[in-house]
C-alpha cells in the first residue's frame, strides 16, 4: 500500500492531483483509516504491531505528500515569475500630457507685462454685491447705464459680476492708509450677452487701476501704448475713441487694427478692420471719494480689457467660442513643446 501511494505522489503533477492522493490514502474513507478503525477486532498482541505499522505508513505517505507539495508550489511560482517578467527594453507607451489653455497663457503674458510696469496682481469675487458691481462705481439703482451690461442676478442684491471693475472699489476700500494703488485684476465675468463670434456670456477681463498724486490721461495713453506694442508688435495700429463709462471721466475705448481680415472685413472685425479690446478712462472723482480717496489730492486711471479678444487678434482665432468648446484640435495648436 505504501509503495503504491508513494508512486502516486511521485506521479502527481499538480496540487489538485496531490490532494486527490491525500484523500484516497489518508482520507476518512481511505485504507489506513479503515485499518485503524478495525483495531478493536484484533488480538491484544496484534494491536500494537498493526497500530505502529499503520501509523508509520500514514506518516511516510503524509511526509511524501508534503514534500511533493513544496516542490509543486516552487515550480508553479517559478513558472509564474517567468511569465510575468517585464521586458525593460520595450519602448514605453506615451502618456498624453496636457498644457496650459491659450487663454491662461495670454492672461499670464499680460500679467507679466504689467508686473514689469510696477503693477501688482489682485483678485476679487465672481459672485458680487450690487453695491460693488454698480453703486460704488457711480451706477446708482435705476441708472440707465446699468443696461449696458445685462446681468445674471442671484438675489436682488447679489449677482454674477458683469465686469472686473468692482475690484477697483474693493482694492481702494481695503487700503486703510489710503496709499497709492497700482494693480491689475484678471478674472471671469458674466453677462446676458447673445453668443456670437466676438461675444460670450461668460468671458475674462483684466482690470487695471493706478491711483496716485498727479496721474494724468497721458500716463494712461503711455501705458496702453506700451501694452499694445509689446503684445502685438510695433506694426499694429491702435486707436482711442471717446466713449462713456459712469466710473471714468473722460472715458475711451481702444481698438486694434485687425490684420487677419486682410482689409476685407471678417466675422471678428465686422466690416471695419478694427476690434475693440478695452475700455478705459480717468477714475471718476465720485468713485475715488466713495472709496475714501480725496479727489483733490488723488487722481487715477483705470482700464478693463478682454483677453479672449486679445488672443484672437494675436493668434488669428476667428471665433471666441473656440475658447470654451475645448476641442482638443484647437487647444493643442497652442501648447508649447
Ligand atoms: C467694461 O466692462 C468696463 N468695466 C471697462 C472699464 C474698466 C472701463 C475701467 C473704464 C475703466 P466693456 O463692457 O466695454 O467695459 O468691456 C470691456 C472689454 O471686455 C471689451 O473691450 C471687450 O474686450 C470685452 N468684452 C465685453 N463684452 C464681451 C463679451 N460678451 N464677450 C467677450 N468679451 C467681451
Automatic annotation (TrEMBL):
Keywords: Ligase. Its EC number is 6.1.1.20. This is Phenylalanine--tRNA ligase subunit alpha. It comes from Gracilibacillus pellucidus. The gene is pheS.
Amino acid at each position: 500500500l505504501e509503495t503504491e501511494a508513494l508512486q502516486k505522489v511521485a506521479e502527481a503533477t499538480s496540487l489538485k492531483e496531490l490532494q486527490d492522493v491525500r484523500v484516497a490514502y489518508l482520507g476518512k474513507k481511505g485504507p489506513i483509516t479503515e485499518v485503524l478503525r478495525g483495531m478493536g477486532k484484533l488480538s491484544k498482541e496484534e494491536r500494537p504491531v498493526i497500530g505502529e505499522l499503520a501509523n508509520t505508513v500514514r506518516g511516510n505517505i503524509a511526509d511524501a505528500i508534503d514534500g511533493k507539495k513544496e516542490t509543486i508550489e516552487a515550480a508553479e511560482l517559478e513558472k509564474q515569475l517567468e511569465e510575468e517578467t517585464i521586458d525593460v527594453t520595450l519602448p514605453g507607451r506615451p502618456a498624453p500630457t496636457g498644457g496650459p489653455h491659450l487663454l491662461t497663457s495670454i492672461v499670464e503674458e499680460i500679467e507679466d507685462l504689467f508686473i514689469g510696469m510696477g503693477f501688482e496682481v489682485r483678485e476679487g469675487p465672481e459672485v458680487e454685491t450690487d453695491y460693488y458691481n454698480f453703486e460704488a462705481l457711480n451706477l446708482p439703482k435705476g441708472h440707465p447705464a446699468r443696461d449696458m451690461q445685462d446681468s445674471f442676478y442671484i438675489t436682488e442684491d447679489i449677482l454674477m459680476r458683469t465686469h472686473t471693475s468692482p475690484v477697483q472699489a474693493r482694492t481702494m476700500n481695503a487700503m486703510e492708509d489710503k496709499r497709492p494703488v497700482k494693480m491689475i485684476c484678471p478674472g471671469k465675468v458674466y453677462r446676458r450677452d447673445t453668443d456670437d463670434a466676438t461675444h460670450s456670456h461668460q468671458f475674462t477681463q483684466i482690470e487695471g487701476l493706478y491711483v496716485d498724486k498727479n496721474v494724468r490721461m497721458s500716463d494712461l495713453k503711455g501705458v496702453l501704448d506700451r501694452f499694445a506694442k509689446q503684445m502685438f508688435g510695433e506694426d499694429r495700429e491702435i486707436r482711442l475713441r471717446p466713449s462713456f463709462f459712469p466710473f471714468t471721466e473722460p472715458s475711451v475705448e481702444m481698438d486694434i487694427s485687425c490684420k487677419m481680415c486682410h482689409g476685407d472685413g471678417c466675422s471678428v472685425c465686422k466690416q471695419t478692420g478694427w476690434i475693440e479690446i478695452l475700455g478705459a478712462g480717468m477714475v471718476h472723482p465720485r468713485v475715488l471719494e466713495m472709496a475714501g480717496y480725496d479727489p483733490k489730492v488723488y487722481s487715477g486711471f483705470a482700464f478693463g480689457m478682454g483677453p479672449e479678444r486679445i488672443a484672437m487678434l494675436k493668434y488669428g482665432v476667428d471665433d471666441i467660442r473656440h475658447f470654451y468648446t475645448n476641442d482638443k484640435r484647437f487647444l493643442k495648436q497652442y501648447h508649447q513643446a
